[in-house]
Amino acid sequence: MDWSYYELLTSVYDTYLEYKDEKFSDYEALARTTYDFEVSMNDGEAEKATIRVALARIALTHSKLSVRAKELSCEVLTNLNINSIRQQLSTEEVDDLLERRDYVLRQFNDTTISLNHDPRARWYYHEMTKEVKVYFDNIISIIPLEEVSDKVLKRFERDCKNTLSENITIKVTLAELLINKGIHEHGELNIKYELEKFNIDDVGQQLTESEKEDLSQRINNLIKIY
Length: 226
Description:
The protein has helices at about 5-20, 25-35, 40, 45-60, 65-75, 80-85, 90-110, 125-140, 150-155, 155-160, 165-180, 190-195, 210-225, and strands at about 65, 115. It is mostly helical and about 230 residues long. The chain has two domains: about 5-115; about 125-225, no CATH class. The chain starts with a helix and ends with a helix.
């Protein structure tokens, strides 16, 4: 290995955190990290196992687990060539790797884990809601109030165009924040129109049933106000 075992683990985690610092979603940060280490995973069985374990551990910290990522990780981690790995790593490192591997596989078998069935989604529901709130709080005191709506929509413009669930989550969260701050709508936001045309069934598997219920309740509360 060109890397030591622990150096490689650390490098994967550090790369992921760098993408998070650049304001990528959990899903995008992990996808970009995976891409960055694709070549290294082909260097040998130990490299592949180490990187896959690290990526899987990161995935388990997310609010949802990609179905495709889960399937791929399970396939790789259950079919490792342990004899080959023992030739590359120390006994202590192999034991640590297998302990991490077994933990991941146990967690992946937990039927209570929320799964993401839509590979297009960049942000998950609660993550998206939180991100809009954080951005709103960061700009509310430094720009004119009449510019807040457009500023938020500009920040999340790409995400609004990505999936229906991301779009409506952004708009609903923004509307809630504006109401809480007593700010009237300005610019491009027309939440009443968005709410009237929205059908929760159209999001399909982009949201879980509990997320659909939560979003529907938030929408109903806004409709009463508007």
